[in-house]
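G., the chain you wanted modeled:
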Amino acid sequence: MKKHGTSLIMAIGLLLSLSVQSTANGSVVVDRVIAVVNNEVITMSDLQREIAVMKKGDAGQDKRSVLEDMIDRKLQMAAAKRSGMDVTDKELADALADIMKRNNLDDAQFEAALAREGLTLDQYKSELREQMTLSRMFNKHVRSGVSIDEAEARVFYQNNVKAYALPEEIRVRQIFLQLPENATPAQDAAVLEKARAAYERAKQGDDFIRLVRETSNGVTAKQDGDLGFMQREHALPEIEEAVRTLRPGEIAGPLKFAGGYNIIRLEEVRTPARPFEKVKDDIVKTLYERKVENTYRGWLQTLRSDSHIENRL
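Predicted structure as tokens:
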């Protein structure tokens, strides 16, 4: 790493490595410097305050990761100051006025609301200035340089098409021989005999569609017995059970259900995927977030490599 103002940093480190704070009851608490970032320091009390604030939001980061985040923010704030992108007093005042207006609060009400959160107006202004500056730097150095085109999205879709798979579908063809209403045992036996004969012919290789046309009745006969694609879970239980162990082209039957005898041939099994156009927006969002994260990490690494950092935690 480059070292800027090393002698000054060492002096600050020696002078501030130990500091003393007095509590309300007169006892003394020893604070210490836990990080040096160029010519600035972060103390243990700074870290503790940061963690206390984060706990209000149920954050679960450990001390080391919180400190690293604090270091990153200091680097970004310093970079903003060097490039003249830090937030001016007027910009801060305008932002504060806008927040109060949107929440319908006057000065006294706003300070009272801050007090309930354990903040003074000056503390809030400092935090707001930092947030505005960090957002400005993020937009300039990260977000502005990130875009995703359709070609990238399509490549991602093709490489991850299984992630967009829909439930498995089956396509079956059916020979249906309808039983008379309130069929007698003799009528039932006669229809069953016809079904068995059709089944044997199908097993021996007769054209299944021709058999449908010759022997089937009911609505599906008009469609050459084709029931179309259906998700397994949406098929009739008898059909799903019948084709569970079949391979495409194999036949099951005769099966008695739906008011008649059925011979079922499994035509095709497929696992369709949601069309690209249906998932395009989600893919673009995913790729954009990944690229933003990578760009942000790369930018931070550049800031770190150009700075003097000591993590003493």
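Strands lie at 18-22, 28-37, 40-43, 169-178, 226-231, 251-257, 260-270, 309-311.

Shout if anything looks off.
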